[in-house]
Amino acid sequence: MDRASDETDRFLPRFDAAGLVTAIVTDADSGGLLMVAHMNADAIRLTQQTGAAHFWSRSRRSLWRKGETSGNGLTLVEMRVDCDQDALLLRVRPAGPACHTGRRSCFYRRVETDGSLTFPDDDA
Amino acid sequence: MDRASDETDRFLPRFDAAGLVTAIVTDADSGGLLMVAHMNADAIRLTQQTGAAHFWSRSRRSLWRKGETSGNGLTLVEMRVDCDQDALLLRVRPAGPACHTGRRSCFYRRVETDGSLTFPDDDA
Question: What is the distance between the alpha carbons of residues A106 and B100, in angstroms, rounded to a whole number?
Answer without folding.
Answer: 28
